[in-house]
């Protein structure tokens, strides 16, 4: 890991822009950690980002500009280069295979890292849906001549080198709008890597032992929920569902007869995932309209609304894990992240639905500082993961899983400002869904009421 490199992650979410500036820890027992230098969180207007895709370039650009300015002030950095998240329902994932005849094979030379990287680079020209661009090429197994399921091809001898890949592509216009938002924030701002958000999040909240043993990351975002499955430290399956935390909030707004912003506050302050664990006599007073007396609602009813929607999300995740074929290989179970992962007892609900072990994931391997404490929550997981992506590769078997930088705006790495001299002015550097899953899941747990 490059310890002196400074990287800035910009997470473009449906409700906010989150920025984290970080640097690899210098030395010692904490050398695999990162140091948080600066951070910020700025809301975006409703509708500016929909289902993870930028819709209003000016509004998103303005929020990015404000967030970068705040993070720059906290870190004493002149931010010029960033890694940016990308996500939503417009992202598509397909499986493809390809192979090449190695030009040096006739002389008996072993497969080299250059051979592997060239094969991966060729996959960026893979045939995909019209009006989509390839964002990531994620290798699974390689093939060397007749040897199948090769994890590490470098060093083997053979004439033909092939591989099985996950191809992550995104709508071309959505990518263009994201880049225009960055340009609107700052014409000189450069994008080094554009990364599918849950892949970045996995760098922040998963550890190497979990990824090797088998783990599924469940990122419950505002409009979507993403699933990424790892096994043997390789990404094996990716899926996105068009349902997330905003649907829970909307259910609460309708069920309690309150405005959406009050429903969001209600979810965060009083939300519980298991209604049976909430006493029947606890009442909550909820603001619903300026100048009116607060409404009185039962906390048990709030929990019932939240529980039903979370069971739907958990059912979708469980069915997709079954579909992937990795259910029996997830020794590490599930790791939940995203804003709604903070709802009390959400682990218990997911465990009952999936019969897998579950934990809530928070950013790990941070140098313990006041700034690190401020970002040690799920809101900053993706931005921290974007910073990690500038310090280590998501798949160390290849030089990069990201589209070659020639396809994006690039520039020099952001640098820490020099100490200010005493006498001189410093120079700046540049019906419920649930019922339809009963036949798939094949079990019933009376402790979850209608499940």
Briefly, what is this?
By secondary structure, this protein is α+β, with helices and mostly antiparallel strands.
State the CATH class of one domain: Alpha Beta
**Which oligomerization state do the chains in this entry correspond to?**
single chain
Helix count equals 12
Secondary-structure element sequence? EEEEEHEEHEEEHEHHEEEHHEEHEHEHHH
How many individual β-strands? 18
Question: SS-based structural class?
Answer: alpha+beta
Rg, Å, rounded: 23 Å
CATH superfamily of one domain: ATPase, nucleotide binding domain
Helix fraction?
25-40%
Taking all residues together, what is the mean pLDDT?
A: 86
Architecture of one domain, CATH level 2?
2-Layer Sandwich
Describe the protein in words:
With 451 residues, the protein is of the alpha+beta class. Among the domains are: 79 residues, Dna Ligase, domain 1; 83 residues, ATPase, nucleotide binding domain (Nucleotidyltransferase, domain 5, 2-Layer Sandwich), CATH 3.30.420.40. It contains twelve helices and 18 strands. The protein has a five-stranded mixed beta sheet with strand order 3-2-1-6-11, sandwiched between helices. A hairpin with an 8-residue loop joins strand 15 and strand 16. Helix 4 crosses helix 11, helix 6 crosses helix 7 and helix 6 runs antiparallel to helix 8. The C terminus is likely disordered.
